Amino acid sequence: MFDRYEGGDYAVLVHMDLPAEVDREDLSELQLLADSAGVKTLGVVTASRSSPNPKYFVGSGKAEEIAELVKERQASIVIFNHALSPTQERNLEKICQCRVLDRTGLILDIFAQRARTHEGKLQVELAQLRHISTRLVRGWTHLERQKGGIGLRGPGETQLETDRRLIRGRIKNILKRLEKVQKQREQGRRARKRAEIPTVSLVGYTNAGKSTLFNQLSTADVYAADQLFATLDPTLRKIEVDEVGTVILADTVGFIRHLPHDLVAAFKATLQETQDATLLLHVVDIADEHYQDNVDQVTEVLEEIDAGDVPQLMICNKIDKLDDVDAKIDRDDEGNPIRVWVSAQQGIGLSLIYDALHERLGRQMVNLQLKIPPSMGKLRGTLYSLNSVAEEQVDDSGQFNLAVRMSAVDWQKLQKQFDHQLQQFVQSTS
């Protein structure tokens, strides 16, 4: 489809220091991303500018320096630690005489390598097509010509228009198939809600140790490696928690700073397990010197996918890499567990996670007696849609007396939905 240079496994990495916090990236993270993609780094070029150059992103002198290094090291690809415009990519490829990839393209490539399930592959392809569609208008001459020659003369459609039409059709087809997968997942979630099974979802910055912890807690055999995005496809397992019973544990894709919006959109079905969770286990690599930045990035993405209100328990992982830090539970002023310090790799402190889950999940369900007037039919219907009505009686005045059991999270969401006016209908809680 594209008249571009072929990619390869030997790369020159380019990182630019920019003053604006929103544009700033981490060079060590780019190197980790490149390693995770199976790329061998032949050289690193760093630069500093007050703002990106519209033509090359870096300055013209620095672009020449990159081209010289590519030629000298015989690199087959240049990878930028930033998002490039289609024009910048084209101009850089012209001067470097090799394939140029930006941060988004590199992450997409890793996702393509990692996807295992049918759903994961569809989501990756959708993200790739959306990314490619913005790069069709890039001045490649063959895309602007009408097809000609025997058997190729058409109604005047250019190659560019043909490519756009094919991509639109493929995106439409993938969205239909993903919608079907989402409905199947939704049925599973509804069944778990009916059975009142709490869901605990592991979230965290990529490479924080989520899959290793998941394997330790569930005795599963999920692929875990010291790589970014080792896990893409959501995996669910049952675990048993004292006095709570069966709990569904979900392992999800890792987050990363400036995660491309196309990927957030494409992985919505995967992240749905996070939105609908009873509790989030926020796994943090506490040995990483940038761990607070990573925590902030995860919080930002959770807000983006409407999961910011879901209760969290922080898991401070990799304490074996720190001196004089023991496994423990940190509590808030009311005595509720808020942080658990563990090492998933070494199996240290795992029992404390179960203790914390026992305390947090045991308090997550609320029992309510509600007296609802006939005018609040919408509220009654919502309660039934949540499968939370255990018993219903209608008194002589036509009011509905409901015995309701639901998660504290659902009750909080319901309060928001009805502008915090529900307390007037509550007769008792437990």
Automatic annotation (TrEMBL):
<dbReference type="GO" id="GO:0097216">
    <property type="term" value="F:guanosine tetraphosphate binding"/>
</dbReference>
<feature type="binding site">
    <location>
        <position position="231"/>
    </location>
    <ligand>
        <name>Mg(2+)</name>
    </ligand>
</feature>
<feature type="binding site">
    <location>
        <position position="211"/>
    </location>
    <ligand>
        <name>Mg(2+)</name>
    </ligand>
</feature>
<dbReference type="GO" id="GO:0043022">
    <property type="term" value="F:ribosome binding"/>
</dbReference>
<dbReference type="InterPro" id="IPR016496">
    <property type="entry name" value="GTPase_HflX"/>
</dbReference>
<comment type="subunit">
    <text>Monomer. Associates with the 50S ribosomal subunit.</text>
</comment>
<dbReference type="Pfam" id="PF13167">
    <property type="entry name" value="GTP-bdg_N"/>
</dbReference>
<comment type="similarity">
    <text>Belongs to the TRAFAC class OBG-HflX-like GTPase superfamily. HflX GTPase family.</text>
</comment>
<feature type="binding site">
    <location>
        <begin position="343"/>
        <end position="345"/>
    </location>
    <ligand>
        <name>GTP</name>
    </ligand>
</feature>
<dbReference type="InterPro" id="IPR032305">
    <property type="entry name" value="GTP-bd_M"/>
</dbReference>
<dbReference type="Pfam" id="PF16360">
    <property type="entry name" value="GTP-bdg_M"/>
</dbReference>
<dbReference type="InterPro" id="IPR006073">
    <property type="entry name" value="GTP-bd"/>
</dbReference>
<feature type="binding site">
    <location>
        <begin position="251"/>
        <end position="254"/>
    </location>
    <ligand>
        <name>GTP</name>
    </ligand>
</feature>
<dbReference type="GO" id="GO:0003924">
    <property type="term" value="F:GTPase activity"/>
</dbReference>
<dbReference type="InterPro" id="IPR035647">
    <property type="entry name" value="EFG_III/V"/>
</dbReference>
<dbReference type="GO" id="GO:0005737">
    <property type="term" value="C:cytoplasm"/>
</dbReference>
<dbReference type="InterPro" id="IPR030394">
    <property type="entry name" value="G_HFLX_dom"/>
</dbReference>
<comment type="function">
    <text>GTPase that associates with the 50S ribosomal subunit and may have a role during protein synthesis or ribosome biogenesis.</text>
</comment>
<dbReference type="InterPro" id="IPR027417">
    <property type="entry name" value="P-loop_NTPase"/>
</dbReference>
<dbReference type="InterPro" id="IPR005225">
    <property type="entry name" value="Small_GTP-bd"/>
</dbReference>
<feature type="binding site">
    <location>
        <begin position="317"/>
        <end position="320"/>
    </location>
    <ligand>
        <name>GTP</name>
    </ligand>
</feature>
<keyword id="KW-0963">Cytoplasm</keyword>
<dbReference type="InterPro" id="IPR025121">
    <property type="entry name" value="GTPase_HflX_N"/>
</dbReference>
<keyword id="KW-0479">Metal-binding</keyword>
<dbReference type="GO" id="GO:0005525">
    <property type="term" value="F:GTP binding"/>
</dbReference>
<keyword id="KW-0342">GTP-binding</keyword>
<dbReference type="Pfam" id="PF01926">
    <property type="entry name" value="MMR_HSR1"/>
</dbReference>
<feature type="binding site">
    <location>
        <begin position="204"/>
        <end position="211"/>
    </location>
    <ligand>
        <name>GTP</name>
    </ligand>
</feature>
<dbReference type="InterPro" id="IPR042108">
    <property type="entry name" value="GTPase_HflX_N_sf"/>
</dbReference>
<keyword id="KW-0547">Nucleotide-binding</keyword>
<feature type="domain" description="Hflx-type G">
    <location>
        <begin position="198"/>
        <end position="365"/>
    </location>
</feature>
<dbReference type="GO" id="GO:0046872">
    <property type="term" value="F:metal ion binding"/>
</dbReference>
<keyword id="KW-0460">Magnesium</keyword>
<feature type="binding site">
    <location>
        <begin position="229"/>
        <end position="233"/>
    </location>
    <ligand>
        <name>GTP</name>
    </ligand>
</feature>
<protein>
    <recommendedName>
        <fullName>GTPase HflX</fullName>
    </recommendedName>
</protein>
